[in-house]
Amino acid sequence: MMENVETLNVDTLFDQGLERYQAGESPADLIPVFKEVCDRASKSSSAWTCLSWLYLLEDKPNSAIKAAQKAVKLNPQDPQARVNLSIAMLEKGQKGVRQHIEVATQLVMAVPELKEEVEKNFADGLNRKPDWEHAQRVYNWIFGS
Questions:
Q1: Rounded to whole angstroms, how far apart are CA atoms 129 and 133?
Q2: Residue 45 in contact with residue 81, Cβ under 8 Å?
Q3: What is the mean pLDDT of residues 13-27?
Q4: Cys staple from 47: which of 28, 37, 74, 107, with CB 3.0 to 4.6 Å?
Q5: Predicted confidence (pLDDT) per residue in 42-81, tens digit
Q6: In sequence order, what are the residues at sequence separation of 6 or more whose Cβ sits closer than 8 angstroms to the Cβ of residue 31?
Q7: Distance between CA atoms of residues 103 and 86, nearest Å
Q8: Cα–Cα dist 130/7, whole Å
Q9: Contacts of 81 (CB under 8 A, 6+ apart)
Q10: What is the pTM of this model?
Q11: Could you tell me the domains of the chain?
């Protein structure tokens, strides 16, 4: 029997969304899943971070900015949320990117696990979207390559 989205608890829904993403499912198919998670767990910064990343992969910087801003507000210590916000701001030509880059850089340099995770996410994003100029630029700023 297929489980209905309504009957799944929000953590299960989130985990399944991540698994589907890692299995290569398209961001467009997963946006509704993560929107549902964000609706049901509006204080989950990781859900907002994931949603903003999916929007970025789908060339929806306006939506990405809104989701990333919520993620940063909920968890200012999440470098990925700040990376996503920086990329979205660059894609919209907005000012104020430097402060987010500086905080993300400090966080990834201070915590090896965060550095590894953020690097892995960049690799994944650039693999899915090879000519992603703004992601490459943010990566270079943070990791200095």
A1: 9
A2: yes
A3: 96
A4: 37
A5: 999 999 999 999 999 999 999 999 999 999 999 999 999 9
A6: 51, 54, 55, 58
A7: 11
A8: 37
A9: 45, 48, 49, 52, 68, 71, 72, 75
A10: 0.93
A11: 10-143 (1.25.40.10)
